[in-house]
């Protein structure tokens, strides 16, 4: 039995805007649309977020919002420009976006592995885009960091509860930038170590709705600080001070 591998902890990690940039690609696409159509940004955000909340996020939302608002700018039918429709097609093809991995991702994941953590990636979105444009692109080494990679349409407590079954002695940490998605569902599943990567430029569809008591959430700025917190917590029992990292 002595040969069993040591497991110091389990880290369940989100992908978009936690390990790699995602929202920026949408913002860039939106900026080009606003420039070419002269649609007002506030009007755009209002409708886009309202529709996502009312009908749920799907791969057509962004494009439909663009088409609807473009139609509103026309005062008569002769003004309709098919080139704008082509532009919208191009701007909403998310498989053509760039989703760069953050500079500190590989090193941070490696630090957890070196400290005998089991890592799991849990991401939501269009499976083909998540796999082809992100996970596969980040390379074999990235994929090998994880025991398992889960791609789902939507995160639920059931998806997270299985991580509590792996090793009853190992603490489970959930790390992500969305309070209402991975962290709320982790909390409902019973995971108590919740690390929120607070971004200034956060996912605008994250309505932030959650029922996690504020004192249960650890707020950090990036994956490096998340790992610092976990390892400090693990070995020293000291309170985390971001100014010391
Ligand atoms: Mg995310």
Q: What are the main properties of this structure?
A:
single chain; 245 residues; alpha/beta; Rossmann fold; 2 domains; 6-stranded parallel β-sheet; 10 helices; 6 strands; 44% helix; elongated; binds magnesium ion
Description:
By secondary structure, the protein is an alpha/beta fold. It folds into two domains: 158 residues, Rossmann fold; 73 residues. The chain contains ten helices and six strands; from the N terminus they run E-H-H-H-H-H-E-H-H-E-H-E-H-E-E-H. Helix 1 packs antiparallel against helix 4, helix 2 packs across helix 3 and helix 3 runs antiparallel to helix 4. It is elongated, with a radius of gyration of 20 Å. Magnesium ion binds next to loops.
List the helices and strands and how they pair.
Layout: E1 9-13, H1 23-37, H2 41-55, H3 61-73, H4 82-91, H5 105-114, E2 117-124, H6 127-138, H7 140-144, E3 148-152, H8 157-161, E4 172-176, H9 179-189, E5 193-197, E6 217-220, H10 223-235
Parallel strand pairs: 1-2, 1-4, 2-3, 4-5, 5-6
- The name CATH uses for the topology of the largest domain is Rossmann fold
For the largest sheet, list the strands in their spatial order: 3-2-1-4-5-6
- The CATH architecture of the largest domain is 3-Layer(aba) Sandwich
Average residue-wise pLDDT = 90
The level of helicity is 40-55%
How many helices? The count is 10
Number of domains: 2
- CATH class of the largest domain equals Alpha Beta
Distance between the termini: 37 Å
Shape designation: elongated
CATH fourth-tier homologous superfamily of the largest domain? HAD superfamily/HAD-like
- What structural class do the secondary elements suggest? alpha/beta
Rg from alpha-carbon coordinates: 20 Å
Instruction: Please summarize the sheet with the most strands.
Output: 6 strands, parallel
Small molecules in complex: magnesium ion
Poorly predicted runs of 5 or more residues: 237-242
Strand fraction: 5-15%
């Amino acid at each position: 039995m002595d040969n069993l591998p040591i497991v110091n902890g389990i880290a369940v990690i989100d992908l978009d805007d936690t390990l790699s940039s995602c929202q920026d690609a949408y913002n860039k696409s939106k900026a080009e649309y606003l420039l070419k159509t002269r649609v007002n940004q506030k009007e755009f955000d209002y409708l886009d977020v309202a529709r996502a909340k009312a009908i749920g996020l799907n791969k057509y939302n962004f494009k439909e919002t663009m088409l609807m608002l473009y139609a509103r700018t026309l005062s008569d039918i002769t003004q309709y420009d098919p080139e704008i429709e082509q532009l919208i097609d191009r701007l909403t093809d998310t498989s053509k976006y760039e989703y760069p991995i953050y500079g500190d991702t590989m090193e941070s994941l490696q630090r957890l592995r070196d400290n005998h953590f089991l890592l799991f990636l849990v991401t939501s979105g269009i499976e083909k885009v998540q796999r082809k444009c992100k996970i596969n692109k980040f390379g074999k080494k990235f994929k090998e960091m994880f025991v398992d990679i889960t791609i789902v349409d939507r995160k639920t407590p059931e998806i997270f509860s299985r991580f509590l079954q792996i090793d009853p002695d190992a603490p489970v940490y959930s790390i992500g930038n969305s309070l209402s998605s991975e962290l709320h569902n982790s909390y409902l599943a019973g995971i108590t170590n919740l690390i929120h990567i607070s971004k200034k430029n956060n996912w605008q569809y994250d309505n932030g709705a959650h029922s996690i008591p504020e004192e249960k959430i650890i707020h950090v700025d990036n994956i490096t600080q998340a790992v610092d917190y976990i390892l400090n917590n693990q070995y020293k029992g000291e309170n985390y001070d971001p100014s010391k990292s």
